[in-house]
Design brief:
36% of the residues lie in helices and 14% in strands. It has a seven-stranded mixed β-sheet, sandwiched between helices. Helix 7 links the parallel strand 5 and strand 6. The chain starts with 10 loop residues before the first helix and ends in a 6-residue tail after the last strand. Bound molecules: pyridoxal-5'-phosphate.
Length: 321
C-alpha cells in the first residue's frame, strides 16, 4: 500500500475549516449560536453525567468552544488553550491579573497601548504590582531592568502609535532565563503575520474587536496561553465572571474565516498609502515597519511575514494659519 503524504494545512485553509463540526450539527457548516445560561436535564444522573462538559452558559457553550478551537488551531501546538474576553482591554487586564501578584514587578514598553498603561498605573498599582516602563527598542539590554521580583515582561510590536519594533526573541530569552513570563499584545500582526509562540511568547493577547472581527461591529478579545500559563488564565477569567455574548462570539468566528484575505489587502493597501505619504511635502516621517526606511524594518523582516493596515506619520512643523 502506498503511504499517503499529508500536506501541512496552510493557515488560510485552517481559518476556513477550524472550529466547526458539521456532522455534529445535522450537516450545517457552522456551529449554532447558543443563547444560554442555565441547562436543564431530565434526571439528576443525567446532570452528573454531562456537567463536566457544559454546566452553565458562562462556563462555555458549543459556540464558545468552536471559537476557542479555531483560535487555538491558528496558534499552533505550543498554544494550550484560549480564553475569550469581552474586549481587547479586558483580555490585557485578565492576562496581567492572571500572572502578577501583590509585591510583583512587571516590565511594560513605553510605547504600549495607552489603556494598558492606565491599567498598570491604576488597578495594578492599587493591587500592589509595580510597573517599570522600558525603552521598546532595548532588546537584550532589558536584563538591566530586571529585579528579583520581576514576574512578567509585556511586549507589543509595533508600539501603539509610535510603531517601534521590538526584538521579542531577545527579550523572551532574557525573561525566560530569569523565570519571567512574556506576554504580548499581538493585535497588529495577528498570529497570521507574527507567530508569537514560536518567538518565545507565553501568552498572546488580541483585541478581536479589530482584525478578527473585521467589520467594526463586535467587542471581543482573547488570550492564548501555553501550558504553563493557561491554568492561571482560565481560573482568573472564570473567577471574575468574564465571558462574551453569543452573537459576538459567532461574529468573531465568522470574521476569522476571512482574516487571511482581509489582512493581505490591508498589507498591500497600507503599504501603498504609506509609500505615497513618504513623498508628501507635509510629511516628515512615515512610521511603518514594512518600509525599508523604517528603523524597525530589519526586525520586521526577520520575524514577521506581513503587515496589517495600521501605521502613523509625523508631520512637519507648520505655522498657525
Ligand atoms: C493594540 C491594541 N490593543 C488593545 C486594544 C483594546 O481593544 P478593545 O477596544 O477591544 O478593548 C486596542 C484598541 O484599539 C489596540 O489597538
Amino acid at each position: 500500500m502506498t503511504k499517503k503524504i499529508k500536506a501541512p494545512i496552510k493557515p488560510d485553509t485552517r481559518l476556513v475549516t477550524s472550529g466547526r463540526d458539521p456532522q455534529a450539527n445535522h450537516g450545517f457548516v457552522n456551529p449554532p449560536v447558543y443563547h444560554a445560561s442555565t441547562l436543564l436535564y431530565p434526571t439528576a444522573e443525567d446532570q452528573v453525567a454531562h456537567r463536566a462538559r457544559y454546566n452553565y452558559g458562562r462556563r462555555g457553550t458549543p459556540t464558545s468552544e468552536a471559537l476557542e478551537d479555531a483560535l487555538r488551531e491558528l496558534d499552533g501546538e505550543t498554544c494550550a488553550g484560549v480564553a475569550l474576553l469581552p474586549s481587547g482591554l479586558a483580555a490585557i487586564a485578565a492576562a496581567l491579573i492572571a500572572v502578577a501578584r501583590s509585591g510583583d514587578h512587571v516590565l511594560v514598553p513605553d510605547s504600549v497601548y495607552r489603556p494598558t498603561r492606565n491599567f498598570c498605573n491604576g488597578v495594578f498599582k492599587r493591587l500592589g504590582v509595580e510597573t517599570t516602563y522600558y525603552d521598546p527598542v532595548i532588546g537584550a539590554d532589558i536584563a538591566k531592568s530586571f529585579r528579583a521580583n520581576t514576574r512578567a515582561v509585556f511586549v507589543e510590536a509595533p508600539g501603539s502609535q509610535s510603531f517601534e519594533m521590538q526584538d521579542i526573541p531577545a527579550i523572551a530569552k532574557v525573561a525566560h532565563d530569569r523565570k519571567a513570563i512574556v506576554m504580548m499584545d499581538n493585535t497588529w500582526a495577528t498570529p497570521l503575520y507574527f507567530r508569537a509562540f514560536d518567538r518565545g511568547v507565553d501568552m498572546q493577547i488580541q483585541a478581536g474587536t479589530k482584525y478578527i472581527g473585521g467589520h467594526s461591529d463586535i467587542m471581543f478579545g482573547c488570550v492564548s496561553a501555553n501550558a504553563a500559563t493557561l491554568p492561571a488564565l482560565k481560573d482568573t477569567v472564570y473567577s471574575m465572571g468574564l465571558c462574551v455574548g453569543p452573537d459576538d462570539m459567532y461574529l468573531a468566528l465568522r470574521g476569522l474565516r476571512t482574516l487571511g484575505v482581509r489582512l493581505a489587502r490591508h498589507y498591500q493597501s497600507g503599504l501603498r498609502v504609506a509609500r505615497w505619504l513618504e513623498q508628501r511635502p507635509e510629511v516628515l516621517r512615515v512610521l511603518h515597519p514594512a518600509l525599508e526606511t523604517d528603523t524597525g524594518h530589519d526586525i520586521w523582516k526577520r520575524d514577521f511575514t506581513g503587515a496589517s493596515g495600521l501605521f502613523s506619520i509625523v508631520l512637519k512643523p507648520a505655522s498657525e494659519p
